[in-house]
Design goal:
Blueprint: E1 10-20, E2 23-26, E3 29-32, E4 35-36, H1 39-45, E5 52-63, E6 65-70, E7 72-73, E8 76-77, H2 85-95, E9 101-109, H3 113-119, E10 134-135, E11 138-141, H4 165-173, E12 179-184, H5 191-200, E13 204-207, H6 214-222, E14 227-228, E15 261-264, H7 273-282, E16 287-289, E17 302-306, E18 309-314, E19 317-320, H8 333-344, H9 348-353, H10 357-363, E20 380-383, E21 389-394, E22 397-401, E23 406-412, E24 418-424
Parallel strand pairs: 1-5, 6-9, 9-10, 9-11, 11-12, 12-13, 13-14, 14-15, 15-16
Antiparallel strand pairs: 1-2, 1-3, 3-4, 5-20, 7-8, 17-18, 18-19, 20-21, 21-22, 23-24
C-alpha cells in the first residue's frame, strides 16, 4: 500500500553510503516522483512507508555527474552537421550515462554566424530520463576569443566585440535562448558592457582562450564573470608579477558576493598532476571537472572532427591534424574523477563534488541538481570504492546498468559514410 497522503510509490535505497553535506555517511536514500524526499515527513506527517526497497550492496551513492564542457563524443560533433544535431544529442546523452553523467552542456566551438543560427535552435534544454542525460543549456566557446590563444579554434572565424559591443554578440549568435555558458576573452574594449548584459540575461560568462592580465580578469569578474574555461589551457602562463587569469583563484579583488569557479580537464594530458594540485589546494571549492570531450571520445585512434577542424587522436591525445596543439580530449567524466583523486590525493568527497556540487553551484541550479538534498532531482549514481560507476539513475529511475548495457557509436569512414555499431561497456 502506498503513502496515505500521496498515491505515488516511494522507493527506499538501503545499505548504502550517500554524499551529503560534504561527507559520505551511512544513510538510506528515499525517492518519490523523481525527487529525493525527507523520510521523517513521510513517517510522521503522512504515516507512509517505502513501497519498494533497493539493496545497494554497500555502494557509494553520489549525485550524478554534470559535464559543463563537452563538444561531442561517440562520433558526434555538436559544432557541425546542424541537420544531425538532434540525433547526435540523443546518442551522446544516452552513452554518457555509462560514465555517470546525468546532466551536461553541449558545447559549440567558434563557428560562423550561419552555423550558430542553424545549430543553437536545435539544442534545447531538456530533462533527462531513459533517453539520456539532461541538457542544461548550451556552452558557446568562442568566437570572441584571442587569436593568440585560439587553441584548436579556426582563426579565420574568431571575432572581437570591441567595436559594436553586445550588438556584435547578438549579430553573431542570433539568439541566446537555451544558452547557459559563453566563453570569451575579457581583454577587449566593451568587455564590461558585454559581460554585464550576458549576466543580466542569465548566461554564465566564462573567461578563456585569452591573454588577459590579472587586472583585466578581475574587472571581468567585478562585472559578473564567474567561471574560467579549462584553467591553464589556452591562456597566458602564470607569472609571479602578473599571474593572469590563473591569479583569480587567490585574488583579493573579487566582490564578496561573487564566487569564482574554474574548469579543469583532469585527463592526465591537458594538465600536469602538479598543476592540478596547485589549483585544487589554492581554491578547492571552485574546482569544476570537465571533459572537453570531442567526437573521438569512445572511438579508436585516427582522424576525427572538431567543428571545421581536423583532429588526430594518437594514444589518447587529440591534436589539430599536423600539429602538436591540443584540441579537446577523449576523456570520460568518470575517468577524470578518478584521475583527479589520484593526482591530487584529495578525499573521495572532494573528487565527487568537483563533478557534481561545484558545477551546479556555478550554474546556480543547486535547488535541483548536484546534491542529494531533500526536494532535489533524484539524479544519482552507484559507485564502488574505486569510483567505478555501476548504475545511473535519473528522476529516481534506473537508466543505465553496467551489467547489461552497451554503448552506441557513430563512426565516420574515410568517405564520411556513417557506420553504427555497439561495443561492450
Amino acid at each position: 500500500m502506498t503513502s496515505t497522503t500521496s498515491k505515488l510509490p516511494v522507493t527506499k535505497f538501503k545499505n548504502c553510503r550517500i554524499l551529503v553535506n560534504h561527507k559520505i555517511i551511512r544513510e538510506d536514500l528515499w525517492v518519490r516522483d523523481g525527487k529525493i524526499i525527507n523520510p521523517e515527513k513521510l513517517f510522521y506527517s503522512e504515516k507512509g512507508h517505502a513501497d519498494k526497497e533497493v539493496d545497494c550492496g554497500n555502494c557509494i551513492i553520489s549525485p550524478g555527474y554534470i559535464d559543463t564542457q563537452i563538444n561531442g563524443g561517440f562520433g558526434v560533433d555538436f559544432s557541425s552537421d546542424a541537420h544531425k544535431v538532434k540525433d547526435g544529442l540523443l546518442l551522446v546523452a544516452r552513452n554518457i550515462l555509462s560514465h555517470g553523467v546525468t546532466s551536461y552542456c553541449p558545447t559549440v566551438i567558434t563557428s560562423t554566424p550561419e552555423t550558430y543560427k542553424e545549430i543553437i535552435p536545435e539544442i534545447k534544454k531538456q530533462e533527462g530520463g531513459p533517453h539520456g542525460a539532461s541538457v542544461l543549456g548550451i556552452h558557446l566557446e568562442g568566437p570572441f576569443i584571442s587569436e593568440e590563444k585560439k587553441g584548436a579554434h579556426p582563426i579565420d572565424l574568431i571575432k572581437t566585440y570591441e567595436d559594436n559591443g553586445f550588438k556584435e554578440v547578438m549579430d553573431t549568435y542570433s539568439t541566446l535562448e537555451n544558452v547557459a555558458i559563453i566563453t570569451l576573452a575579457p581583454e577587449f574594449g566593451n568587455a564590461d558592457v558585454v559581460i554585464e548584459e550576458l549576466t543580466r540575461k542569465g548566461v554564465v560568462v566564462s573567461l578563456g582562450h585569452s591573454e588577459a592580465n590579472l587586472e583585466e580578469a578581475e574587472e571581468a569578474v567585478q562585472h559578473g564573470a564567474r567561471f574560467i574555461t579549462h584553467l591553464f589551457n589556452a591562456m597566458g602562463p602564470f607569472h609571479h608579477r602578473d599571474p593572469g587569469i590563473v591569479g583569480l583563484l587567490t585574488s583579493d579583488n573579487i566582490p564578496s558576493d561573487q564566487e569564482i569557479f574554474y574548469g579543469m580537464i583532469a585527463d592526465g594530458i591537458h594538465t600536469n598532476p602538479a598543476a592540478l594540485r596547485i589549483a585544487h589546494r589554492s581554491h578547492p571549492d571552485g574546482m569544476v571537472l570537465v571533459t572537453d570531450a570531442m567526437a573521438a571520445m569512445g572511438l579508436p585512434s585516427g582522424r576525427h572532427q572538431l567543428g571545421s577542424v581536423a583532429v588526430d587522436v594518437v594514444h589518447r591525445r587529440a591534436s589539430v591534424a599536423g600539429t602538436t596543439t591540443l584540441s579537446g580530449s577523449i576523456a570520460t567524466m568518470d575517468d577524470c574523477v578518478r584521475h583527479f583523486k589520484e593526482a591530487t590525493r584529495c578525499t573521495i568527497e572532494q573528487a565527487l563534488e568537483a563533478a557534481t556540487l561545484h558545477p551546479a553551484q556555478m550554474l546556480r541550479i543547486t535547488d535541483r541538481k548536484g546534491t542529494l538534498e531533500y526536494d532535489t532531482d533524484a539524479d544519482f549514481i552507484f559507485l564502488d570504492d574505486d569510483l567505478n560507476v555501476s548504475y545511473t539513475y535519473i528522476a529516481g529511475e534506473l537508466v543505465w546498468d553496467n551489467s547489461k548495457d552497451k554503448i552506441e557509436v557513430v563512426q565516420r569512414s574515410e568517405d564520411e559514410e556513417e557506420i553504427e555499431y555497439a561495443r561492450d561497456v
